[in-house]
Amino acid sequence: MKPNRKQTTFEVEEELQFHIEMLQGNYTRHGMSAAEAKTAAARRFGNFERVKRQCVDIRRRNSLLRRVLKTSTILIALIGLSIHFLASNYKVERIGNTLIMIAIAGRLLIYVRGLGPSSFLRTNATSVITCTPDDV
Amino acid sequence: MANERTDLMQGTLELLILNTLARESMHGYGIVQRIHEATEDLLKVEDGSLYPALYRMEERGWVKSEWGVSENNRRAKFYKLTKTGQKQLDAQRANWNRISNAVTKILQAT
Which residue of B5, B59, B83 to mutate against A (max A Cβ within 10 Å)? Predict the structure, then answer.
């Protein structure tokens, strides 16, 4: 059963919250007070709400689009096969063949790309990793 | 000291995550910690940015997640590499080595 948006949001929140609590615990073990650890963890994690929204969006949009595309390729393939076998005219049969080819190509694309629409939605602004040789 | 921050190539984080998960399944916090330890804090991953990357990788079928119990008995989501992820890691590793070798040769030639 596919989780709805509320469940997805709850799971994402739980996962991110775990990360922040682990950070807090780590800072506390290194001598920070609870308040200092909380601030330091929040700073290191970044914008919690933005990350949560991104994760929920990726999960929701990808799931929906993938399902639609997968179903579409199956439908196109079935229509193509029906036309291919039922057509008495060569030209009509070619339409069926074309549809089958489109369905196969689409399915291959989904498989090869893993089809994350997120790959098309990737933002350029996010700097996720930095090299800090002198950052002491 | 100067706060010199150099953005690395896009896709680097994915390569680091895949490589980290090649050893064992881990939760997000563990992945970040392992990267920091392995690079002796030379590479700093923005912790929050890890998750959108992980979610994208999961959608592509490179990693698979399941809820489990962490080292401190908390419910946590663990990620592990899939066969597709392993192939992706091999491909990205080879690509990285190719680029790295090419740049090194250019720098040595000048």
Answer: B59
Strand order in the sheet with B63-69: B26-27, B75-81, B63-69
Residue B7: half-sphere exposure toward Cβ, Cα within 13 Å: 8
pLDDT digits (tens), chain A, 136 positions? 556 778 889 999 999 999 999 999 999 999 999 999 999 999 999 999 999 999 998 887 666 677 788 888 889 999 988 888 888 888 888 888 899 999 998 888 876 665 444 444 544 434 455 555 544 3
Identify how many contiguous H helices and E strands chain A contains and give both numbers.
5, 1
Closest Cα in chain B, distance from residue A78 (Å): 26
Q: How far is CA B33 from CA A25, A35, B25, B30, B50, in A?
A: 13, 22, 14, 5, 11
The DSSP secondary-structure symbol of A19 reads: H
pTM of the predicted structure, to 2 decimals? 0.70
Kindly indicate whether the ipTM for this predicted assembly is greater than 0.90, answering yes or no. no
